[in-house]
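Q: What would this complex look like in 3D?
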Amino acid sequence: MKTKQIVVSLGATILGLAASPAFAQAVSKDYRFLTFAVFGGIIAVTMWVTYVAAKRTKTAADFYAAGGGVSGLQNGWAIAGDYLSAASFLGIAGLISLYGYDGFMYSVGWLVAYITVLLVIAEPCRNIGKYTMGDILAFRNNPRTAKAFMAVSTITVSTFYLTAQMVGGGVLVKTLIGIDYEVSVGVVGVLMLAYVLFGGMVATTWVQIIKAILLVVASLVMVALVWGQYGFNFNGYLGAVVADPSIQAQVARLLGDAARNMTPAELGQRFLEPGLLFKSPIDQISLGMALVLGTAGLPHILMRFFTVPTAQQARKSVIWAMAIIGGFYVLTLFLGTGAAMKVGAPAITEIDRGGNMAAPLLAQYLGGGKDSLLGNLMLAFVAAVAFATIVAVVAGLVLAAASAMSHDIWVGVVKGDHATSDEELRAARICSLIVGVVAIAIGILARGQNVAHLVALAFAVAASANLPVILLTLYWKRCNTGGVVAGLVIGTLAAIGLVLISPNMTYPAPVRATQEKAIKAADERIAKLNAELPGLADPTAQERTKQAIAAAEKVKASADGAIKALGGATTSIVGLSEPLFPLRNPGLISIPLGFLAVLIGSLLYRDRRAEEMWEELYVRSNTGIGRAAAAAH
Amino acid sequence: MASTALNWTAIDADPRFQELHRRKSRFLWGLMAFSVVYYFLLPVGAAYFTDLFKVNVWGAINFGLVFALSQFVVAWGIAWYYARRASQFDALAEAIARDAQRIGASR
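A: Here is my prediction, written as structure tokens for the whole assembly.
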């Protein structure tokens, strides 16, 4: 039982690492044992799942696609687990808690994206593909060329997504329980590697299912508690939101001068109206395009359709996923507004400026607050769910990238499709190890970098490169290898290139100017407060002034740090002093470019095989002939 | 795998497959177009029809909120409707798959 020993000792090592002392944040030190207990429970369950899965993972088909033996319902939960990252669990609840309506509007695109997956992608992918997106393209295009380019694009998209998850996950775990950043990244990385390496797709699927169930249960309990106070009356609940003083104060803060003539009721109502967060509608539309078209081009999502036995099960899995994902986003409306009322924006942003702590802090409040055992147990549970979320998403990403490396590049391109199942299984495990180690390294090296836009970039590349080539290979008779190569190259380069010259990058001059202004303001405030200090007789007033001085010093120090972080740079990493492209999201331009490239590339290039294989592809894609027999072994 | 034995051109040309292709294409792309248009009404409406979005419908609930929530209902509705229609396509596809060998041979 070699695997069992390794798995058990891994679990113990991780718990030991996580328990090493550091500083506490959302979870207070006295209650950290609770978090570790819940973490330990989740790790133990997933390790057991991995152990069982490892025994069942004997062939390459098992490793990549769980042998095609996942049911539609199971796959639906796994898709939800694969898709609902910490960004959607904690991030969207946070956005709603700080900005109200705009945060909720943001969540809609993430669900609507699945309509594209359901209608045009899931079933054909199941009927045509085997283990990777490269397989779909290789069906009619030149197999070596198509697989090589698709693999590079898969690895690119997965790496962007992975970097955002590793860095974001490291910061989250650190913020939640106060362990060191490097330790959190290491723990996430080692756990994810254990699942993927030993249990392949079977273990990854079950870890994603477990995580999705935990996430939904945690959200349901919290919503029941927060909405139940208002008798589950939607209108009454929103009435309380509008009448809530801390929400009114937050809206007043966001609006600044514009709020001066508004009544408290108007301020509260404003929270449920658009425009507190998003100022650029074109950017929103551009992001919406990347979401709606990009999800259907995400390798780790498409890969899930190779795990079900039939196209009907693939369809069923998307419908389940839409029910779970959509239901979850409706719940976040309550989580976000609940946190805005019960915890309040200042307390949320004190720990994390982006609002990620809204849901965890709401859990703590609902259980009885900071000093109660139940409150801290609930916080521990939500923290553990967030942790499971990160690990499950990362495992899916690593599996997708590793499959592209081993199945497409090593077996498809290098070995010309001649490899035994054992050889391929070994290659897949080696590639998983490489991708996993690289992910941990990137996570540690990218510490402190702003990686939030990398998720949007992953979606943009998926929508601009992957989706056009998959869609047109499946539905357009004239599509061929020339179009696929042109689409992948131009779509990817356009999306990345536009982001490099967009406002997402750091432009030192304006940053320096803002921070210098902040330092100057802080200096003036400190001088003013110091001048007042001797005149104050009341000790409490003196104390308050001293605290205000300390706060101003802190602001100054962080501004100083921001300037130091720029180093001597005067331009962005591509040498610009200001953005050339005005949008943060490149989709609006890069998606049409990607489609255009496939069209033009296909028309300019002649590829007999792509023409000859069209009828077979189209018949198989619509009827499942051939594939249905193959899945039964 | 029976792929080499099948005459794909013949199956593709089979009237039943052509019927499946026609019905499925029209249905899928129509539904796809509807869902995309309906979704983009949300960011466009929030940005350019703010006054409409602010109209209170019932208590604190305004049109914008109702519209955003309707996106979920419409998405689920599309999924439900598609699943219903897809079972008809399944029946057609199954009939073709059953006759696949015969269609190729009769040419």
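A: To summarize the key features: Residues 510-566 of chain A form one domain. Chain A touches chain B through 55 residues (CB under 8 Å).
Q: Very helpful, thank you.
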